[in-house]
Amino acid sequence: MTLLEVTNVTKKFGGVTAIDEVSFRAEAGRVLALIGPNGAGKSTMFNVISGNYAPTSGTLRFDDRDVTGANSVAMSRLGVSRTFQKIRLFKALSVMDNVVIGAQSSAPVAPWRFFFGGGAVRAAAAETRKHALEMLDLVGLGDVGDVRADTLSYGQQRMLEIARALATKPRLLLIDEPAAGLNQAEADGLVRRLRLIRDQGITLMLVEHNMDLVMDIAEDIVVMNFGKKIAQGAPREIQENPDVIRAYLGEEAMA
Amino acid sequence: MFSSLARQQWVRSSLPVLVAAVVIMTAPSLVTGSFWQRVIILALFNVVLAMSLNLVIGYTGLLALGHGAFLGIGAYTSAVLTTTYEWAFWAAFFVAGITAAACGLLLAVITLRLRGHYLAIATLGFAVIVYQVLMNWIDVTRGPLGIPGIPTPPNIPLGNGTELDFGLPAAHIYLAGAFAIVCYVLIRRIVNSPMGDALRAVREDEISAKSLGIRTFAWKCFAFTVAAFAAGLTGSLYAGYMGILEPSAFVLTVSFTLLAMVIVGGAGTLVGPVIGALVLTIVPEALREVGPEYRMILYGLALTLVVLFFPQGLVGIGAALRSRFRSSSRSKPDEPPSDSTGTGFAKEVPVDAS
Lengths: 255, 354
Fold this sequence. Notes:
Number of strands of chain A: 10
Largest interface: A-B, 50 and 32 residues
Number of helices of chain A: 9
Largest sheet of chain B: 2 strands, antiparallel
Helix content of chain B: over 70%
Distance between the termini of chain A: 40 Å
Strand content of chain B: under 5%
Number of strands of chain B: 2
Structural class of chain B: mainly alpha
Strand order of the largest sheet of chain A: 6-7-8-3-9-10
Order of helices and strands of chain A: EEEHEEHEHHHEHEHEEHH
Strand content of chain A: 15-25%
Helix content of chain A: 25-40%
Oligomer: heterodimer
């Protein structure tokens, strides 16, 4: 089943075309990696899918619905969650609160009802905290819930962003460069945890430069260069695709 | 029935309220001079104003400078309704709150696309406009002449044959005190719930908040409207206490003083603005005894020193002392600081695009 369908999407900033007529599909329950050299338009594509940018032209369908031009709040509520290339945590709040805020958006009780209290509201609050703690455990931060988010190490902050995004109970999770700044041990842990997330039935899309990681975890790969899609396929096909090798490694690699 | 944790929480949430209630009940008999009774009443009004402004500045991270304008709108709405139109005080009280809230919502919708300095300037402009309207809309406000003869709230029968007589300052202390406590409890309900989390999320990172499904614009409007509502109600009580209103009571300095109360007390904390309002209302009056020529210099100096050395505000001093005491008595890691970010102002950062 196709969860996300991107059709002929173009995004221009003034005269610059960041994405040029790109189409691809993300199949439900699989891991899709979006790769390409710096400036290829990968993060812009994430920003379009997550509703941070509206596409200049083209259409987006999510779960068989036309979501072209929906904003980030709407996309989050439809089940698309994301992390950011440059970490954007709620720095001054505790680790737990970061995730709780994510979990509240998927809670069945609207925030204003907490003003009046009551049993249903208390139960919902307890459920939200329990869910948040599960997400923290899933990314290995279960025992540091009380510290301020900005006191975590860089790798932990990346994992916290993933936990916060997961807490919204997304169906599609966009992860932007999760391995950036991680050491090898942390990157190995990341792969293991991304698999756990995928095994929960959450469709993953990641932008990542660490090719070992991409080839390890991705089931489908879309390659972009200068805003255009230049290839799509399974990891092995991509590794052998001459266009990709040229774009990615430069002309000399072809020699 | 109660677990010990639940009892502990109940004590923690009720104790400050009970202490405040006792202090307010006994204040008129402890402080008998009319000058200091007046200071107490004004301090209690400032407590509500600072608490409500803190909702916008401390929790939502929006640098809004026009809070005094909502006080003025509420005060004048109430004064005009009770004098020119001879409304009952309590009807005018609620309409004053609603009018201020409506103005707050309008200002929010117009200006909340702005952040940081730009929002500050826009809200400052609003305060200037309100002041000019009060000065120049002579038909309604009588301009610089002011509105005299504003009735006090009607006396409240106490059941045992006596009544709360608003001809006396004590009644105003009780009323302002009760109002401040109610506002404190309601604001606490907001900030200690997912509503408060949503506001903090807006303050910390708006783009992240949106990506988690939080309607940031609606929450900013909410904070503005609630704060303006509280300020408008305060304005009505202020008019009922003063008996006469002049536009000069709502100059820009009022808004800046309220801002100082929030920052000095501790933005983004519950008790910070309460402490800030009490200290910054009472200390300048106490300094009158030192000598009028040095009073404002000392006051300004104190403000500068607090902001310089305790950017978390006066509550930050308490937290720092407590954690030092704790770490020396038993070596336990410091608790995370309460949810204050110091200044609390979110920075405008574009979505990363590469």
